[in-house]
Amino acid sequence: MIVLLISYLCATNVITMSQDWFAEIKRMIVEIQSFEIKDATSLEQFRLQFLGTKNLIKPLFAAIGKIPNELKKEYGQLVNEAKILAEERFESFKELKESANKSNANHLDLSLPVRLRSEGTRHPISQVLERIVGIFSKIGFEVVEDREIEDDWHNFTALNTPDDHPARDMQDTYYLRDFGNMLLRTHTSSVQTRYMELNKPPIRILAPGRVYRNETISARSHCQFHQVEGLYIDKNISMADLKQTLLFFAKEMYGTEVRMRLRPSYFPFTEPSAEMDIYWGLKDETDYRITKGTGWLEILGCGMVDPAVLSNCGIDPEVYSGFAFGMGIERQAMLLHKIADIRYFFENDQRFLNQF
Ligand code: PHE
Predict the structure, then answer these.
(1) CB of 326 closer than 6 angstroms to any ligand 1 atom
(2) Does domain 124-353 have CATH number 3.20.20.450?
(3) Digit-coded pLDDT (tens) for 90-125
(4) Which regions of the chain carry the CATH code 3.30.930.10?
């Protein structure tokens, strides 16, 4: 009797329980269907309630284990339906939301915060180049550009550097194997000869450009770099004009307190020749390293244009004279910005470039 009663109670209990379970899941389905989604906030609430990690459907899934076997299948299907329904409703509103965003895109919302665009900057080499050009244009130098693939005549021979001249070893050259005597220019001095052949004095030009030398790439040297060439040809031009021009440049570039010196040197195409140093200082270890312990830094080569070069280019050295100078741009950019390695200029790493 007691056993019967207990089993009866249990049975009724199970039945009432199972009916409760069904009621709960049915109520949930109605709730999912009728949940009012009207904006992004209510959509998010819907998602949290029915799809989030702590959603209300989850415990109903967990309850499957407690359901009597004969009801399990039906119950499982219902819970699954509830879940699919919630997903479908959410997805349909998500599309609505996206399309709403798109159609709103045509309207200008002035209350939106500004979206900062990442802008590029001029390459540090271009910036230094522009500065140099700006300085010399103040005293009447005109910018001229010419080719990077040059012939032997304009790069060497016309510049008083014949085939067997030892000075050719100063600049290890890239020759273009299949193009006769063509080469990658080793200096912008090639623009001097090109220009003098076609133009009569007075000549006052500045020729910036890329040059190439077969050098081992290291922190201090590269197989490609940039130079600016200056050339001034007229009647009665002397070394004093060269010196004053360079002093003007040095003051504009490095400040009026700059100290400069001209050191005798040798180039086949200038006579006399000199190198210009500026005083960098000897305060710390880096200064010692950069200036090799002298405090002075060489920034350009210069000199009075050799009469033979003028003749080679069709200018009468009895009537005209002039000076030329050539400077490396990387070297000066490194000085100005205290950059320790020349290779940075050619890697185009945004983290480096964005600093300028
Ligand atoms: N062309 C020389 C060099 O590359 C520099 C230079 C230019 C020297 C003009 C004198 C006159 O080293």
Answers:
(1) yes
(2) no
(3) 988 877 677 666 666 667 777 888 887 777 789 999
(4) 124-353
